Amino acid sequence: MPAPTLLVLDTAPSPRLGRLTGRTCVRYTDEAGLAARLPEADVLLVWDVASDAVRAAWPGDGPRPGWVHTASAGVDRLLCPELVRSDTVVTRARGIFERPVAEYVTGLVLAFAKDLPGTLEFQHRRQWRHRESTRIAGSRAVVVGAGPIGREITRLLITLGVQVALVGRRARRTIHGAADLDRLAAMADWVICAAPLTESNRGMFDARFFGLMQPSAHFINVGRGPLVVEDDLATALRRRWIAGAALDAFEQEPLEPQSPLWDVPELIVSPHMSGATTGWRDQLGEQFVEMYEQWVAGAPLPNVVDKRRGYVLVQDRSE
Amino acid sequence: MPAPTLLVLDTAPSPRLGRLTGRTCVRYTDEAGLAARLPEADVLLVWDVASDAVRAAWPGDGPRPGWVHTASAGVDRLLCPELVRSDTVVTRARGIFERPVAEYVTGLVLAFAKDLPGTLEFQHRRQWRHRESTRIAGSRAVVVGAGPIGREITRLLITLGVQVALVGRRARRTIHGAADLDRLAAMADWVICAAPLTESNRGMFDARFFGLMQPSAHFINVGRGPLVVEDDLATALRRRWIAGAALDAFEQEPLEPQSPLWDVPELIVSPHMSGATTGWRDQLGEQFVEMYEQWVAGAPLPNVVDKRRGYVLVQDRSE
Question: What ipTM was reported for this prediction?
Answer without folding.
Answer: 0.94
